[in-house]
Specification:
130 residues, two-stranded antiparallel sheet, 4 helices, 36% helix, alpha+beta, 5 strands, globular, hpI Integrase, Chain A
């Protein structure tokens, strides 16, 4: 062991957007079907699996809070799996700005319209984004 050099730990430089860059991105993404997912990522810091695992029952519109109860996991060749977050601290409530809350309400209204359009062909799993 005395003759072995330990591996060097390199830190990745994390590049973050300025508020102006984030707003510019959102203005371009406004028509995208994942716009609400982008909003949640930028305004809450939630990661992809937690955003995609979000259900309508996890959103408290009166308190303007999101409860993280599950995450979406997609192991190779196994489809989509929902499971509880890995740690207890990952299950938490996140405050959301009124602007994001408003966009979530708009998104839910669009989903309800699609549900009526598709009738029984609409697969309802209470998901906000799937």
């Amino acid at each position: 062991m005395d003759n072995v050099d330990p591996p060097r730990l390199t830190q990745k430089k994390i590049i973050t957007w300025t508020p102006e860059q984030a707003n510019e991105f959102l203005s371009h993404a406004e028509k995208d079907k994942y716009y609400v997912a982008f909003l949640l990522a930028i305004y809450t810091g939630m990661r992809r699996g937690k955003i995609l695992g979000l259900r309508w029952k996890d959103i408290d519109f009166e308190q303007a809070k999101i409860s993280i109860q599950q995450t979406l996991y997609r192991p190779s060749n196994q489809g989509i799996i929902f499971h509880e977050p890995k740690t207890k601290s990952a299950k938490r409530r996140i405050a959301i700005p009124q602007f994001v809350l408003h966009e979530l309400k708009r998104h839910k209204a669009k989903q309800n319209k699609l549900r009526l359009q598709y009738g029984e062909g609409y697969e309802d799993n209470d998901s906000c984004l799937l």
